[in-house]
Amino acid sequence: xxxxxxxxxxxxxxxxxxxxxxxxxxxxxxxxxxxxxxxxxxxxxxxxxxxxxxxxxxxxxxxxxxxxxxxxxxxxxxxxxxxxxxxxxxxxxxxxxxxxxxxxxxxxxxxxxxxxxxxxxxxxxxxxxxxxxxxxxxxxxxxxxxxxxxxxxxxxxxxxxxxxxxxxxxxxxxxxxxxxxxxxxxxxxxxxxxxxxxxxxxxxxxxxxxxxxxxxxxxxxxxxxxxxxxxxxxxxxxxxxxxxxxxxxxxxxxxxxxxxxxxxxxxxxxxxxxxxxxxxxxxxxxxxxxxxxxxxxxxxxxxxxxxxxxxxxxxxxxxxxxxxxxxxxxxxxxxxxxxxxxxxxxxxxxxxxxxxxxxxxxxxxxxxxxxxxxxxxxxxxxxxxxxxxxxxxxxxxxxxxxxxxxxxxxxxxxxxxxxxxxxxxxxxxxxxxxxxxxxxxxxxxxxxxxxxxxxxxxxxxxxxxxxxxxxxxxxxxxxxxxxxxxx
Length: 487
Ligand code: SAH
Ligand code: SF4
Ligand code: F3S
Hints:
Blueprint: E1 3-9, H1 13-26, E2 31-33, E3 42-47, H2 52-74, E4 80-84, H3 85-98, E5 104-106, H4 114-123, E6 130-132, H5 140-143, E7 154-158, E8 160-161, H6 172-175, E9 180-181, H7 184-196, E10 201-205, E11 214-215, H8 219-223, H9 231-234, E12 236-237, H10 239-246, E13 254-258, H11 267-275, E14 282-284, H12 292-297, H13 304-317, E15 322-329, H14 336-349, E16 353-358, H15 376-400, E17 405-413, E18 419-423, E19 429-433, E20 442-450, E21 454-461, H16 467-470
Parallel strand pairs: 1-2, 1-3, 3-4, 4-5, 5-6, 7-10, 10-13, 14-15, 15-16, 19-21
Antiparallel strand pairs: 8-9, 11-12, 17-18, 17-20, 18-19, 20-21
Helix pairs in contact: 10-11, 11-13, 14-15
């Protein structure tokens, strides 16, 4: 009988991707994913260390899981409790000390070694727990199996890992290690496998995804103009070139990438937004603050006006591009006028959506030891003001799409019966009434209603040919309101 594997994922999309790959690595050992922790033979918490609350959640979850582990033992079973991800990397020893119920701790760069780690755990039953938080020389990607759990119609693909930017507030360079880009040919092969497994959309992932500079496929040497570039120069590709290459995959309809850094938005990448229809008109481009002295203290290495100019160039290339960002309020030393500059920047840019956070001091980062830490109450007040403005912008953007007809990739069942949910090209959640057999399809939807965080609409055409036969079946209607394209 298959052993049950429960993985709980915290944090960013890279962790979501890593969790699918952990399942892949454990499948040959007889572990099959389950969506409930009770009775599981192995539980992995794939953790995030980005803000204080993120790691606190892990320790309280470990408390709850201790109980489940004991129950399993009382029934004569054995459950392996593992902690993975960025908290594991940063606080591996501390986890084993504070939570002796944990059997195994491993970091984001070593999960390809899981078969060996699990064997060691089962063998050394009485040990204090197995720890592997190396940054190995070998790349995990070279050892991961090709067979992959099906990710569905919108899939993630990690193309770049780690970060060399060292923003002063951020733990990622310490938890994920140095920047590394996968070879373009490997990414192409994985993208093709995802598409044959049903993916219509792929989001390329990296902590600094647009700093991508992976080895070019061999064939590019043959086509590179000999006079204009040396072999060395043509031997790596940036993200723009990679996106064009992946666009060639038949059956792949949409490409996205996240998270980008403003400093790495090069001309080629900006041009791709205007020229490659498969690259969606949406970009998450974190700015963090609108005040130059704060950006400087954060070591972001660009000014607010640099950011404005990048946005101008993006909009010149792709006039309908929707923008999203991350913001931190209450960074040490942030004055009222700095916060006002952030509000000004938000007003100038006009975001379709955004994420904003109170600054959280992280152990071992330079900003943690800056003296002028901001009061919690001030942080809360600024966050509320900023979120009010961003929320109003998001609602206005959603309202501006009412009446438009746009392609929506239907990804999953909605909250109500007969309801499906999907994403617009601009990353908005869209709910429609439609039969489940349209899951995984890209359909034209007329947007009828806008909410703060989602849209509602009706399917007007499908990317299918069987529609007329299905229409009119009242009990099993494929499309609730078929009005025909353009009517
Ligand atoms: N690589 C991405 C961000 C990764 S972390 C980038 O460079 O933009 C995701 C977001 O978490 C960041 O953009 C930032 O807004 C937020 N964040 C990171 N560290 C934080 C901290 N110490 N306190 C509060 N927010 C933080
Ligand atoms: Fe963190 Fe800055 Fe690197 Fe983003 S670019 S992961 S915020 S250090
Ligand atoms: Fe969190 Fe690690 Fe991602 S700290 S945001 S899970 S890279």
